[in-house]
Amino acid sequence: MTPHAVAALAGPVLDPIVDLRRMLALHFMVNAFRAGTVVAVLAAVVGWLMVLRRQSFAGHTLAVVSFPGAASAIWLGVSATAGYFAGSIAAALVIALVPRSVAGRPGGQESAVIGTVQAFALACGALFVSLYGGFLDSITGLLFGSFLGVSDSQVLTLGAVAVAVLAVLAVIGRPLLFATVDGAVAAARGVPTRALSVAFLLVLGCTAAEVSQVTGALLVFALLVMPAAAAQQVTARPVAGLVLAVGFGLAVVWVSLSVAFWSPWPVGFWVSTFGFALYVGAAGGRVAVARHRRTPVGGRRGAGERERGRALAPGVVGA
Amino acid sequence: MTTAAFFVLAHPFLESAFAAGTAIALASGLIGSVVVLRGQVFAGDALSHVAFTGALAALALGVDLRLGLYGGCLAFALLLAVLGRRTGADDTVIGSVFAWVLGLGALFLSLFTTSSSGTGGNGTAGVSVLFGSILGLTGGQALLDTAVALAVVAGMVAIGRPLLFASLDPAVAAARGVPVRALSTAFFVLLGLTAGVATQAVGALLLLGLLAAPAGAAQRMTARPFLALWLSAALAVGSMWAGLTIAYLAPLAPPSFGILGVATAVYLATFAWPALTRHRGAGSTRATPPATVSGSGGVIGAR
Amino acid sequence: MAEDRTIGADPAVHLADATVRLGGRDIWAHVDLDIAPGTFVAILGPNGAGKSTLVKAVLGVVPLAGGRLEVFGRPPGEGGGDIGYLPQRRSFDPGMRVRGVDVVRMGADGDRWGLPLPWGAGRRNRDARVDDVIDLVGATAYARRPIGEMSGGEQQRLLIAQALVRNPRLLLLDEPLDSLDLPNQAAVASLIADISRAAGITVLIVAHDVNPIASALDGVVYVARGHAVSGTPDEVITTETLSALYDTPIEVLTTSDGRRVVVGQPDAASHHAGPHGHAHGDTGTHDQGERR
Questions:
Q1: If DSSP codes are grouped into helix, strand and coil, which group holds residue C229?
Q2: pTM value > 0.90
Q3: Which residue in B43, B142, B194, C287 is deepest, having the highest Cβ count within 10 Å?
Q4: C22 to B90: CB separation less than 8 angstroms, yes or no
Q5: Do residues C206 and C22 lie in contact, with contact meaning Cβ atoms separated by under 8 Å?
Q6: Is residue A313 in some structural domain?
Q7: Per-residue pLDDT tens for A159-211?
Q8: Residues C218-273: pLDDT tens digits?
Q9: Contact at CB, C91 and B303, closer than 8 angstroms
Q10: Choosing among A51, A181, A244, which should be mutated to test the C contact, i.e. which has the most C CBs within 10 A?
Q11: Among the four given CATH numbers 3.40.50.300, 1.10.3470.10, 3.90.226.10, 3.90.1640.10, the one describing domain B9-113+123-204
């Protein structure tokens, strides 16, 4: 029996200190927490921008593509981590380099492409898993997350990539935000909006690959979108929002890992459930607060309201 | 050709697979075409998650998986029909809901595989929901699936013309007396049935590809909606036959990989070879002014 | 009422024999135009004539196919903070969770690389300037709310603040009044006029309808059929001038309350017929997104 099974079989004592100690006595759990922490921070920051840019589904697609990457890596005998990154980054490059005209009409065509890419990626993953004789366990782990067997080198890789990505974001974050909120004006000011979009796609690819390794390729939404979206529901202030997103992400990961350790159910389920609960709570809270203040959420203020401002010269006489 | 036919007939499981597969591909191609036309590919994505979770919930509860599969799909399809156009929920909300649904599915999968009521085929049932089991269909199952798929095909043939009208131009169609709302509901019900039946062929995770790829390819090849409809069906059936053949010749590869691989290759071909899209006509893209600034996110048209 | 700094100065915008070509056809050609600094000038014309294109050319976003264009004596595109820009028909997604004050701040330093330091004199100065300009446009009461939740008029005020925050010498406004209701049109128009007069800013405003801004105008540029005519409103918006420009009978009527109505102008030939009143052609495409 694996140490995990032994510990889990014994069940939680429901004394947090004791349970925590027992859990963290296992090296792979320590690694799992390290990995989860790193990934949560990265996902919160990148996810905050991604939600603002309405690119949630691009993030999801990039993560789905990491599944065949990881599966093929296992089949080839290489580390799965490398496979995750290779899959997502390659896909990000393809999306970035595909000229816009090929994307075709907006609406139906673009989604048909994304849907096909997702399905084909999953099919390839199934192929590779079948090739190396993997069973349901490995598929479940790759698709829905598993914290077993997080190695030291994996933690180091995740950490290094996260640091690199965050450094890049520190440099390009401000003009990227400008380009996101106000593309035309930013471009007029000389901000290289197209190059920044490409750069962000690559950032997103790396992040999706990182998150996949914690939540599984299909459930990255839980860490990439939900904490950041919840934070944005609470506040529209950028710095506060980012900090809150990171806090939410860490909370979701830590709680999910702890609960998943003691339960037989996949960590991806727990992450998505807690993340979703958080998001619904934040959104619901915002609606409730707004109703309490009797300010319409998303409503419009009266057109006839007079704003106070500095006294200006009265209306101009004809030129 | 005849030798191939005899070969198929000599192997019962192949016969079931080809029969059911053809019908399913036909249905998927037809309805997928309308899905892409209406710009509602997301509905297919959502349905795939619901199919997965529904089927596994049924398995975990110990009932026939088709109960959960069809039940979930149809219930969700009716929900979509009732909700109508996007009410203002954006990508974040929709994606979050379906991520959670998928997470639930993972739970049910885990419950099912660890439940003591499961037989040695637990793992197989889970995988077959995920990635399909067309070669593993029994005669009875195949018969039912073929019947359902053919019902969808018949439905599409019956309502195809007014449905296309209502999809392309709802306001004008309504003015002409076309029951847009009822057609929309019928469409979603057919889509739900297709999702249920396609899950058994290529799996819940991949049914989106069967809906999107042949339809997308057909739409790139022609701008005429009816032609696209039948072209999409033809491409889907072709992909199915080719995929099943590959699956027979290369048993290590899952059959759904072959089917989807061919469908994707065809779609890819319409991008790589402009000659195939030569007949697009009115739908062709225009040259965009070079100065188009590429913002993203917050800028939309006037309120 | 010219101010001292405008006498004898170089024109703010100077076009000589300028031509712009987009999508293979000449939008307008051989245009000669001088806009004096500190003046309030409207760019008028029918749909698709190239009004927005003129603005984009001044910004340097659209290159000239021929002729010369100078902004304050320099080639276009080098203005940086000297030019404030309000693009056409911006309306923020109702779900956009960014505050109005942050949108204005981006106008101040959003194009700079690296992270802003949360301390220091530079930061304080910037914040003070942002608060000042928000106060100037009268948006202090609601600036700290998410911009997606504001009305059209409120959003426009904040966007004007964003365009003004770096003390530009030239303000380019592309149909800023288009999506506003009438009372807001009047309010925003007079706000722009007052600010520009007080600070001596040159204002180029693209408009469909001259009437909300007529009383503040120093000059008019009328773009139609590949040409542009400029002068004072009384010179340009006349039956004779417009008929000559369009080469077809046009009548300019003046109503009893002084408003001018142009009758008989054909729309410029556009690529595709759209709903009445929408600008097409040079104003870029609207991405409808996926219907759900």
A1: strand
A2: no
A3: B194
A4: no
A5: no
A6: no
A7: 999 999 999 999 999 999 999 988 888 888 888 998 999 999 999 999 999 99
A8: 889 988 888 888 888 888 888 888 888 777 888 888 888 777 777 776 665 433 33
A9: yes
A10: A181
A11: 1.10.3470.10
